[in-house]
Design a protein that fits this description.
This protein has 94 residues and is mostly helical. The protein has one domain. Helix content is 86%, strand content 0%. It contains 3 helices and no strands. The longest helix is centred in the middle third of the chain and has 28 residues. The chain is flat and about 45 Å long.
Length: 94
């Protein structure tokens, strides 16, 4: 049971951090124009990715631009990505 709790905590922590980073980046950043800005953008998206992927997939699914299978695959990838980020958070906390 401890493993399930750890998995759910990792997922929740990863999605929370992803959402916070994605929204802060949207507020503060503009389109990257230099190589440094592009590298920073990719670094931020490594953490903000699950939230951005889930938002874009949901928007496409609601607009009927993607199938259920594609949407399910995107949700699974975003979930796994969030668990990995959350596991890193848990590991750093311990």
């Amino acid at each position: 049971m401890r493993g399930v709790h750890l998995l759910l905590y990792s997922f929740a922590g990863g999605m929370t951090l992803s959402g916070i980073v994605a929204n802060l980046y949207r507020i503060m950043a503009r389109r990257p124009k230099s190589r440094t800005a592009t590298a920073l953008h990719y670094g931020v998206m490594a953490v903000a990715g699950p939230s951005v992927l889930l938002e874009n997939a949901t928007r496409s699914f609601r607009a009927k631009d993607c199938s259920r299978a594609a949407y399910g695959f995107a949700v699974a990838i975003a979930g796994y990505w969030a668990v990995l980020i959350g596991a890193l958070i848990v590991e750093l906390a311990l």
